[in-house]
Amino acid sequence: MPVLVMKFGGTSVANLDRIRRVAKRVGVEVAKGYDVIVIVSAMSGKTNELVGWVNETSPLYDAREYDAVVSSGENITAGLMALTLQEMDVPARSWQGWQVPLMTTSAHGQARIEEIPTKNINEKFGEGMRVAVVAGFQGISPEGRITTLGRGGSDTTAVAFAAAFDAERCDIYTDVDGVYTTDPRICEKARKLDRISFEEMLELASLGAKVLQTRSVELAMRYKVKLRVLSSFEEQSDEAGTLVCDEEDIMESNVVSGVAYSRDEAKMTLQSVADRPGIAATIFTALSDGGVNVDMIVQNISDEGRTDMTFSCPTDQVARAEQALLAIKEQGELNYAELIADTDVAKVSVVGIGMRSQSGVAAKMFKVLSDEGINIKVITTSEIKISVLIDRKYMELAVQALHDAFELDQAA
Ligand code: ASP
Ligand code: MG
Questions:
Q1: Residue 238 pLDDT more than 70?
Q2: Which ligand sits nearest to residue 152's alpha carbon?
Q3: In which residues is substrate bound (predicted)?
């Protein structure tokens, strides 16, 4: 029988009532003839609570125990979902990650999936089980310890199962009815997209559109898993939601398909570093060893052998960055005048595969911002994206102005 993967996020399984509601949807797909793999998140708020308990107990926690605690939210929903389905006379059972077993690396807290053997679950499908309810977000390391896949990791569990079982589709049920041209909370003209390419979704996800974990989109792209994002709160139809698919499956699209933003960005400038081979390597090795995720990088033109180096990183990593850079300064590995942190910035980006073939998108973006009197502090581009750092207080204005200028409220 064809396999369908259905993933339910935290709000879709927030209480027993909601679990019953989504179980009915699973029942509908079973009645259509699918063997269904259901991936569940923890009830909404649960994982945050568990993380809080770990931090309170042990600020410098043992990551293996962090995973033991934090993975447990999903175990509850998996069991409850299986019970609910059984009450509806749908043959179902729950699976924790280790029972599958979903094999991961040993990188606790952010493990990567290595392998999903299909044998155990397929055997049960062969014996008449119709739904395998799998706890998302968790797996088992080569050492036999429980691991988790990073926050939002159930999306990745779902896509990985869809790839392993060659599922017809992977439906991600959430509390929004799809992927939007931008965040409807800050731009009322935001429009739901019927389709979006893997590449654009990848950019949007990593730029802060929180609807899918970035890693899940990478996997879907690599294994060509048809991914659909839809709401568990609205009536179901085959056309519902947004299909994340291959570029070739999209007939028409705007040059720009979305505007993304991230509030959580800081700009850091190292003033007056030597302009010679090895300096950038020294700086960014120290930052990476210090666990800082650097995003944008700009190096100024040098003046008498000295230059300024600017980079951006998440706001909550500023202290770590300062520590890492001060350490190499004190060890004499790097000399700089000052390190200036600007935490009142935001990143705004426009994304679209159409940019590959059409020029002038950057010029238009900069003109729109300048017409609004918004100063650009840092710019980076890729083949299908242009990002700028601006003062945070102008973020919403910038998003709205760009959404208007690129006419994203209208379909292509
Ligand atoms: N419950 C986990 C989290 O909140 C995983 C997930 O829901 O995707 O990060
Ligand atoms: Mg999520």
A1: no
A2: 1
A3: 47, 74
